[in-house]
Amino acid sequence: MSDVIDRPMLDLETAAATRLKIIDCDIHPSIHAHSDLNEFLPKRWQQHLKEYGSHLRTPYIGTTPYPRSSPLIARRDAWPPTGGVPGSDLDFMRKQHLDPFDVEFGILQVLDLFIFSQQNLEFGAAIQRAINDWQLAFWAHRDPRLKASILVGQDGSDLGLAEIDRCAKTGEYIQINVSPRANEPLGRRRYWPIYERAQELDLPLGIHVGGYGGHAPTGGGWPSYYCEEHQSNAHTVASNLTSLVLEGVPERFPKLKIVFIEGGFGWIPATMWRMDQHFERFRSEVPHLKRKPSEYVKEHFWFTTQPIDEPDEAKHLRQLIEWVGIDRLLFSSDYPHWDYDDARYAFKTPLTDAERRKIFNSNARAVYKF
């Protein structure tokens, strides 16, 4: 990991990157200022944002899940020279990331305004609608490599369904994004209407880490340190994978594709092994499951690569990739964040050309139908 990328790309690396034509499944654009949203946000909610701001499902006041030493979770060299916050300048993003790494497609993941964690569901829906429109106007329409997601808050599922239908009519969004930190675990039936609509529309369901669920992010309670907070992303994703599988979501929606984003993948094998073991002991409790949990994981779920867990020995990372399944992994950089994964160095274990093509391009091409 690095928070400054200070070595220029070598000619040989440029050639390799060009051959790969990377599909980056996790790029974070940011609004330059709240006023960017005004043309997409009704006057009522503009005034609400100005007077009241966000009211989030979190016990913290005036703090965020990232430290002051890493403002906006960003690389120090990602602050645009033209001003604004990291990820807010398209030309700078092109120069620093899209062009040198020959990114064929980049999937936008918006985190501004903690849109999934608003207590006021109507305000949250208005912000989601504005940001969905802003993604097209400020990014996808200005650079066809960048692809937008439909952001919806699943705790207001009627509002979420309306937003999905509105955006889907445009044919310009490539997935539906929901939060891993909702009011309840993601497998619960209250969220199934969104999964049903995603399956009907044949749009993958993206689940990016972050936000506030109103609950402690770990099973042991609230963490003391920022590095504990960051570690909890893996726990959150693992618990939601377990919930989705054991509640029967992939059995109920067999054509639904689910992508976990920015949760890493080091925890997946052990989670599958444990679910399978419990399934053998308690399968009468979950008769709606027709197969072992690991079989659902290997057919219905995909995982973006960043942050990559890095064992001391490269051969162990190799084993980990094989246990997860090379067809399940989608490359992601997390640009412009401080724990960004540089495509040149992300995998510290040898991969064949065929394996690199799968992880860096063809797996995502198949999932998102590029």
UniProtKB/TrEMBL annotation:
<dbReference type="InterPro" id="IPR032465">
    <property type="entry name" value="ACMSD"/>
</dbReference>
<dbReference type="Pfam" id="PF04909">
    <property type="entry name" value="Amidohydro_2"/>
</dbReference>
<keyword id="KW-0456">Lyase</keyword>
<protein>
    <submittedName>
        <fullName>Amidohydrolase</fullName>
    </submittedName>
</protein>
<feature type="domain" description="Amidohydrolase-related">
    <location>
        <begin position="23"/>
        <end position="370"/>
    </location>
</feature>
<dbReference type="GO" id="GO:0016787">
    <property type="term" value="F:hydrolase activity"/>
</dbReference>
<dbReference type="GO" id="GO:0005737">
    <property type="term" value="C:cytoplasm"/>
</dbReference>
<dbReference type="InterPro" id="IPR006680">
    <property type="entry name" value="Amidohydro-rel"/>
</dbReference>
<dbReference type="GO" id="GO:0016831">
    <property type="term" value="F:carboxy-lyase activity"/>
</dbReference>
<dbReference type="GO" id="GO:0019748">
    <property type="term" value="P:secondary metabolic process"/>
</dbReference>
<dbReference type="InterPro" id="IPR032466">
    <property type="entry name" value="Metal_Hydrolase"/>
</dbReference>
